[in-house]
Amino acid sequence: MQIYLDYSATTPTRPEAIALMQQVLTEQWGNPSSLHAWGQRAATLLERARGQVAQLINAPSEAIVFTSGGTESDNLAIMGVAQQYTSPQHVIISSVEHSAIAEPVRLLEQWGWQVTRLPVDAGGQVRLQDLQAALRPNTVLVSIIYGQSEVGTIQPIAALGELVRAHKALFHTDAVQIAGRLPLDVQKLPVDLLSLSSHKLYGPQGAGALYIRPGVELVPLLAGGGQESKMRSGTQALPAIAGFGLAAELIAEEVAIETLRLIQLRERLFDHLSDVPGLVPTGDRWNRLPHHASFCLEYADGETLSGKTLVRQMNLAGIGISAGSACHSGKLVPSPILTAMGYGDRLAKSGIRLTLGRDTTEEDIDWTAVVLKQILSRLAPQPVLTKV
Known about the structure:
With 388 residues, this protein is of the alpha/beta class.
């Protein structure tokens, strides 16, 4: 029995998107920038996908710039703002950002920019008063992740964005984990920039998008042919973008029902594991991604028994889970996310994440709980018996 529970790392591309991509590769393979019939057929398909992605977040089509994925979208948002300034300014991020935000901001810091990394509470949430206190006259950008991929916590983006808007700075959010799992409406959210990724919502890998609120200016990262309204030069990866667009359209039709189903499955998993000694939920218990459950292990030693150990043991049983962020897999170092939330190094090496998706069933949840309990009972430290 094979059970995949790592949907926050990537989702399987849905059959409808694969079929469309095959059609594009064989029949509509023109360059969208070309003026002849082949190019114009490709351009029509490209703009259809742009409209489908825009509709997912209730944005105008012209506000969508296609990229290679969430990482490029995040980098374009951060560096596209920063490169407008001839002298270093001030930027604010949270201490639980994905590395696609944390790393470009670290580079800005090396260039002399002032950086504030907001602390979070024990559940991983940013406090409004901390953002308010951090804003400065030269704050030009605030970037706060919407749904944290490792611990599942959802940030109060609407309230945070209102503070930033009142300060007249730009506000970006990485919504990669939110899109397709919760409704998104950029007409109601006070965001200027918002990142999306195709392969997190059952589209293909290699495509993403950045929403840029009309009127917001960015400096492009790439120089070249000026595609994507001069925001992202390079011939568009049309098959992947077409698959992305169709996946976005289909998930938008399903999200209301699927969100409720995922929450029920998530709570079923939490209930099954609630009585396991030493297995402690991480992240905000209720302000949480609907498909996301995460834990750390109190008696892990951080070396022979860690989150990585549990991933390997579960994999041997045919169940795919993750140790913290998939982007850090293979490195036995304390999770920077758990560390920011106040966990010590030993516990910060023991985090695991189980994320659910369209194919997850109640039977999958029940069997996963049985297997995880068996593994933990086998790995748990045995009491030392003394002779009387």
